[in-house]
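WARN  no MSA supplied for this record, continuing single-sequence
INFO  ligand: zinc ion
INFO  echoing inputs
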Amino acid sequence: MSPRTLIRNARVLTCDGDPHERPADGDVLLDGDRIAHVSRGRLDLTELSASSTRVVDVHGATVLPGLGDAHTHISWPLDFVFDHNGVAAAPPHRHALDVAAVVRTFVESGYTLAIGAGVLQPQDDVLARDAIDAGLIPGPRIVPSGLLITSPGNLGDGAPTALTAANAKELREIVARQCDAGVRACKLFISGDGIVPDFPSEDVYMDDEMLTAAVEEADRHGAFITVHARGSVAVAMAARTGVRIIHHACFLDDTALRELEARRDDLWVCPGLHYLYAMVSGHADPWGMTPEKIDASGYRGELAASIDGLRQLHAAGIRIVAGGDFGHQWTHHGTYAAELQRYVELVGLTPTEAILSATRHMGPLIGADIGQVRPGYLADLLVVDGDPTEDITVLQSPERRRAVLRNGSFAYVNPEVYP
Ligand SMILES: [Zn+2]
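INFO  complex generated
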C-alpha cells in the first residue's frame, strides 16, 4: 500500500473554477502521489487504517493547489543583471548550481510548476527537470524549454542564446532537434520588443507557413509552441496557426481578438504584467533602466494596452495563465506571486480568479491532473497561513508559507513553523 498522508484542520481552496470560491473547512487525504479524498469538515478517522496514515495538522491554514508560472527563465541566476551572454558562456558545472538554487526558490515560493520560456544554456530546463524528478534537488514540475528560436536579422539573431531559422524547413528541423533533446515548450520570437530600440514591439517575424510547420512538428513529439508576441498582428498569426501559449499579447485589435476567441479551448495567454508594471514604475532604475529608456521603449503605452487587453480577454473567456519573466533584480526570483496581485489590482480579477490563472488553468495547458484539490489529481499543494482570496498578497509572504507538497511529498517545510 502506498503511504498515506492526512492533512487535517485545513481551509481548503479547491480551485474548481468558481470565481468566487472561498476556502472551506476540510481535510485532504493523500494516497501516494495523488489526492484520494477531500472532505467538508473532519474526515472520519475510523475509516482509515491509522497506523499507515501520517496525520499533519495544519491548524486552519489554507490548502490550495501548488501555483504555476507559465513564463519562466530558470537560467537566470539569483544575482542576474541582464548579462545573458555571460551566463551563456559560464562554466556549465558552476551554472548548474545557480540553476539548482533558482528551482529551489520556485518550490519554496509555493510554485510546483514552471513552464520554460527560453534558456541560456541549451539543456538548463531539461537537466533541471531530470535532477528534480530523480530527487537530487528540490524544485517544481518543469515543462522544459530550449534556446530561443528567431529568424534572420530579428531579435536575438546572432546571440549565443538563440537559434535562427530562415524558413519553415529550417524551423521544423530546429523544433525536432529540441524535442529530441527533451524540450516540451519550444519558444519562438515572432515580434519585436520595445525595450530593444531597434526592434519595435509591433514588428512581426516569421509567417503562417513557418508557425504552422513548428506547431505540427512539436505536436508530433508531444510538445507545443510558445511565442513572444507583443503586437496585434503577431498575436493574430499565433492564434490562427495553433500556438499554445502567447506570451505578452500587449496590443490587441479586433482581428486578434477574433482569432483568439476561435481558439479559446486550446490556447492560453501569459501576460507578464508585473514585469511591465515594475519597469514602468521605475523599479529597474537602479540597474540602468532610466525613465528616458522606459520612455523610448514604449512600455508605458504597452502597460496601458495590456491592462485593457487583459480585461477584454477575460470578458471573452480566453484563459489567462500567470507568468512573467521573473528573475531580474527588480522582479527577483521568489516574488512570482506579485503577478497575481497585478491581475487583481490592475485588471480587476477577483483574487480567486487570479489564483485560478496559476492553478486550474495550468492543468489542461500541460495535459496533467494538476491545479485543483480534487480526488484523483496529483497532490501538488501549497499550505499558507491566511486567506489569499481575501488578500492576494498573502501568497507573497515567505513567513506565511507553511509547506509545499509535490507528488504527495513535502518538497518544502518552513523551518520557522515546523522546527
Ligand atoms: Zn521571457
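The chain has two domains: 4-65+371-413, 67-366.
INFO  checksum written, moving to next record
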